[in-house]
């Protein structure tokens, strides 16, 4: 009996040691190819003398740049940032098609252009026309100048594929290559008055930059800084953090490690989103941009040594690294500081005192857990506008990972791609049931008057569609790729593999109830074994 107790004690000690190693074992430092340093100062490319020598006395977009930077200007003209379109060849059942923001319909603001040509929401001048009586003093307030505040990095002309002098000079080079403290990108430029919208002699809406020329010439930078990128990307969808998961104003300036560990330690957007010939390295299931010249790096390209705990590390390396994306465990939440838009309804509008305009009904939420899904890096787009929509229970999936779920193979499962985290978003949008096509909303009209029905009717007329009061729900799964937290904040085993469904919707992913049953049984067996060992050890 004494031997049995001794044996039980040894087993308990071994189990305790393994448990400590599993959950709290020593963690070797992550070896990275690039050492993270404090954020560098901006690298200016002061053009004051160069402009004087060239006789340039006013910044007029690429017209001021092309004589010295012709090749770069031509590259930028063909880039996704200007053209808002790329040849997309990874849509299931489709050959190569030209798609992107220029042609798409989305669940936040409808359509920018109709068929890449007709201005729906690209540029204009929306002012508050019909405020509630208590806000009558705000009548005439400038609300927005259209999606072109960010989309197209232009001086207002709709980007065309054919290069000519007017199109080439339409590029706003300094929307990226300027110190944001002097010439900020995006809506901030409009709100602060450094960029204004006007109509030229032909009645065409255009932009002009109002920053004093000498100040602007000295503020040109070689590489776009993260804050200039974020002044568009962190405010997309109409507000701070509304659209892209974890792209929010908290990333401007100095950044907390818990918000984004990479930016907090000195990295810039362009360290991962590398540019080559103005083509962007991008990878994700909900993006349009494609580049054959440059590829986005993988996490493992920098983090060569990872998951080094003696037992837990082996489990992760063996069973997770090939089937679970790094983001799934290392981005446990999104919308950390600013609430994000999870649902908007274009059939309703309410007045926002903060924004001095009417807004569609928007649900904002913070600190959200991502939904999970498999992505095989091939299928990214679920609906190509303006094809006839295929509705399921009144819903149309716009962008989704679209990979198959897990499939049983004997006693085990096989999966298509890796498990990734996503933000799930829905939007109620107007619809033409006869054509089977979502109707573009004239967004500025909603902002100015709150009349959602009229805004849908005007949008329908511009697109040659009909609006009779019908609406559908548009669905999008948005990749959660930003906001990596320090390693100690990563998900633990029981966050996903607890006795009940926690973060992982096993049944929806194709596993059925097997994981719930297996994990619960394993825990029960472990508990019974411990009880038995304690009984052997302490019974008299």
Describe this structure in words.
- With 540 residues, this protein is of the alpha+beta class.
- The protein has one domain.
- The chain is built from 17 helices and 21 strands.
- Strands 13, 14, 15, 16, 19, 20 and 21 form a seven-stranded mixed beta sheet that branches. Strands 1-2 form a two-stranded antiparallel sheet.
Question: Which descriptors apply to this entry?
Answer:
26% helix, globular, 18% strand, 540 residues, 17 helices, single chain
In summary, what is this structure?
The chain has 17 helices and 21 strands. With 540 residues, it is α+β, with helices and mostly antiparallel strands. The chain has one domain.
SSE blueprint:
Blueprint: H1 2-24, H2 48-54, H3 70-78, H4 80-83, E1 86-88, E2 97-99, E3 105-106, E4 110-111, E5 113-114, E6 118-119, E7 126-127, E8 142-144, H5 165-168, H6 187-191, E9 195-199, E10 205-209, H7 213-218, H8 226-233, H9 261-264, H10 269-272, E11 275-276, E12 279-280, H11 299-302, H12 312-319, H13 326-330, E13 340-352, E14 357-365, E15 371-375, E16 395-399, E17 407-409, E18 412-414, E19 418-432, E20 437-438, H14 443-449, H15 452-463, E21 471-479, H16 493-496, H17 514-538
Parallel strand pairs: 13-19, 16-21
Antiparallel strand pairs: 1-2, 3-4, 5-6, 7-8, 9-10, 11-12, 13-14, 15-19, 17-18, 19-20, 19-21
Helix pairs in contact: 1-17
């Amino acid at each position: 009996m004494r031997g049995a107790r001794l044996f039980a004690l040894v087993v308990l000690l071994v189990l305790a040691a393994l448990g400590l190693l599993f959950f709290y074992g020593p963690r070797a430092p992550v070896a990275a190819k690039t050492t993270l340093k404090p954020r560098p100062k901006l690298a200016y490319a002061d053009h004051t003398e160069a402009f004087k020598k060239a006789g340039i006395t006013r910044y007029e977009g690429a017209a001021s740049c092309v004589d010295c930077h012709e090749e770069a200007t031509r590259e930028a003209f063909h880039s996704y940032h200007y053209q808002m379109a790329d040849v997309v060849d990874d849509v299931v059942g489709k050959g190569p098609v030209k798609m992107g923001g220029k042609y798409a319909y989305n669940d936040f603001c409808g359509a920018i252009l109709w068929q890449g040509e007709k201005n729906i929401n690209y540029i204009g001048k929306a002012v508050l026309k019909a405020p509630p009586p208590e806000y009558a003093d705000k009548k005439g307030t400038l609300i927005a100048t259209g999606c072109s505040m960010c989309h197209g990095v232009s001086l207002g002309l709709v980007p065309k594929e054919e290069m000519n002098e007017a199109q080439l000079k339409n590029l706003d080079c300094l929307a990226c290559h300027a110190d944001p403290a002097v010439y900020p990108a995006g809506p901030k430029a409009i709100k602060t008055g450094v960029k204004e919208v006007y109509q030229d002699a032909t009645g065409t809406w255009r932009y002009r930059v109002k920053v004093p020329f000498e100040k602007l010439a000295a503020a040109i930078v070689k590489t776009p800084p993260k804050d200039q990128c974020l002044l568009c990307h962190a405010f997309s969808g109409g507000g701070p953090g509304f659209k892209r998961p974890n792209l929010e104003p908290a990333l401007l300036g100095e950044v907390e490690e818990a918000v984004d560990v990479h930016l907090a330690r000195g990295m810039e957007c362009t360290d991962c989103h590398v540019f080559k010939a103005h083509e962007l390295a991008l990878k994700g299931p909900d993006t349009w941009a494609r580049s054959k010249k440059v590829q986005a790096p993988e996490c493992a390209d920098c983090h060569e040594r990872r998951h080094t705990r003696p037992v837990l590390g082996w489990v992760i390396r063996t069973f997770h690294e090939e089937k679970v994306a790094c983001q799934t465990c290392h981005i446990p939440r999104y919308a950390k500081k600013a609430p994000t838009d999870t649902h908007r309804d274009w059939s309703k509008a309410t007045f926002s005192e903060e924004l001095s305009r009417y807004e569609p009904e928007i649900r904002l939420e913070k600190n959200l857990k991502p939904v999970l899904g498999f992505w095989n890096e091939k299928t990214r787009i679920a609906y190509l506008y303006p094809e006839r929509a295929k509705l399921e229970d009144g819903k149309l999936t716009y962008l989704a990972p679209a990979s198959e779920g897990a499939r049983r193979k004997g006693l085990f499962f096989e999966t298509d791609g890796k498990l990734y985290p996503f933000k799930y978003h829905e939007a109620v949008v107007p619809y033409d049931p006869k054509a089977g096509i979502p109707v573009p909303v004239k967004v500025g009209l909603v902002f100015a008057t709150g009349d959602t029905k009229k805004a849908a009717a005007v949008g329908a007329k511009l697109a040659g569609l009909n609006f009779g009061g019908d609406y559908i729900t548009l669905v999008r799964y948005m990749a959660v790729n930003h906001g990596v937290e320090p390693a100690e904040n990563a998900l633990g085993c029981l966050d996903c593999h607890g006795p009940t469904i926690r973060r992982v919707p096993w049944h929806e992913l194709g596993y059925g109830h097997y994981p719930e049953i297996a994990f619960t049984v394993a825990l029960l067996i472990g508990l019974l074994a411990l009880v038995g060992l304690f009984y052997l050890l302490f019974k008299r």
